[in-house]
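Sequence design from tokenized structure. All designs in this work follow the same two-part layout: the structure record, then the generated sequence. An example of the structure record is given first.
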């Protein structure tokens, strides 16, 4: 009798395991991957790197459980006759899910529609399901792990995590974080002396900003800087505008890199791109602050910048005044003597940053 009970217990245990494998449990709210990752970030900020690594691994495990649960629910939905009959479009299927009282599926669909929008999935439920199947990757975790390993001196391990985060950047909750990843890669490569990786990471930052690959704009800037007109600098900034705030630092860094490699024209191109992007960004801020303000000259622009403490702080943090200064020097190195000298004169008289005003005066 005892043996019979024992075997029944084994069978029930095995069946329980099979059923649990077939029917994943919905993760608890407190165990959601983004919540665990937030705790990892707190540990990192406190300098508790061991705890941060542990929590990153827990966040990845939570992500895997979420993927298992989402896949289980969505697979059941897609295999149902009503859904197959109605077609693949999410907008058509939401009423079907409601009529079926399939609240778990609705919760998943509405969550991702809120995060990405229906257009991201081409309004297709199968495509949303395909996207969910990729979520076994967690680029935010890899990014945080990379920063931890870099601080611990494990640069090779850090770069490996960064490369994986970059490869999976489409899955980032905040798409713009891919720029943080690329800048971290560039800075790490610069630190380790890998100029090829440094340049490659920076070029990935600017690759799709609409300016880097625009050869017509590049030629137009060079032609403008080579003119002999009296209001040359003001005319240049009247003509050239481009909004790409995430690219500013990359352009300035590329300018520095190409200067060190004795590539003066490339150094000028990149620095000019960075200045134009920074100028455009600040100009938009000034117009928002004072709708009556309009750009009439660089001296007035500098004066207007000086009125706002936060604009000055942003410009200083992003090396904007240094960018103008480098642009002037690199213009002269490329034969744009009048442009470079005129820009230095304006900076010496009007730059709202005393240090760079003095530097311009000394350069003259």
């Amino acid at each position: 009798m005892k043996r019979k009970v024992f075997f029944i217990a084994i069978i029930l245990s095995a069946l329980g395991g099979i059923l649990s494998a077939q029917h994943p449990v919905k993760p608890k709210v407190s165990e959601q991957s983004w919540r665990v990752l937030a705790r990892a970030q707190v540990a990192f900020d406190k300098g508790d790197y061991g705890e941060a690594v542990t929590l990153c691994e827990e966040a990845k495990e939570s992500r895997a459980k979420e993927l298992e649960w989402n896949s289980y629910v969505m697979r059941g939905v897609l295999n149902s006759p009503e859904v197959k009959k109605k077609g693949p479009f999410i907008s058509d299927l939401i009423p079907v899910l409601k009529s079926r009282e399939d609240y778990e599926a609705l919760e998943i669909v509405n969550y991702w529609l809120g995060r990405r929008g229906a257009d991201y999935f081409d309004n297709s439920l199968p495509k949303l399901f395909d996207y969910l199947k990729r979520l076994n990757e967690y680029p935010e975790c890899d990014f945080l792990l990379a920063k931890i390993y870099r601080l611990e001196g494990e640069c090779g391990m850090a770069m490996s995590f960064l490369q994986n985060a970059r490869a999976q950047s489409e899955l980032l909750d905040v798409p713009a974080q891919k720029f943080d990843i690329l800048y971290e890669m560039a800075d790490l490569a610069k630190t380790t002396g890998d100029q090829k990786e440094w340049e490659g990471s920076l070029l990935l930052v600017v690759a799709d900003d609409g300016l880097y690959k625009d050869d017509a704009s590049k030629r137009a800037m060079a032609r403008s800087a080579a003119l002999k007109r009296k209001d040359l600098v003001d005319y240049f900034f009247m003509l050239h505008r481009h909004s790409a705030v995430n690219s500013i630092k990359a352009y300035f860094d590329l300018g520095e890199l190409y200067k060190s490699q004795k590539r003066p024209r490339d150094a000028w191109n990149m620095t000019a791109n960075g200045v134009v992007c920074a100028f455009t960004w600040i100009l938009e801020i000034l117009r928002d602050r004072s709708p009556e303000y309009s750009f009439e000259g660089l001296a007035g622009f500098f004066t207007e910048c000086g009125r706002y403490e936060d604009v000055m702080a942003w410009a200083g943090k992003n090396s904007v005044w240094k960018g103008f200064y480098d642009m002037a020097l690199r213009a002269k190195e490329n034969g744009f003597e009048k442009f470079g000298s005129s820009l230095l004169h304006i900076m010496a008289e009007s730059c709202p940053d005393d240090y760079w005003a003095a530097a311009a005066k000394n350069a003259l």
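The radius of gyration is 28 Å. We note this feature because it recurs in several other targets discussed in the main text.
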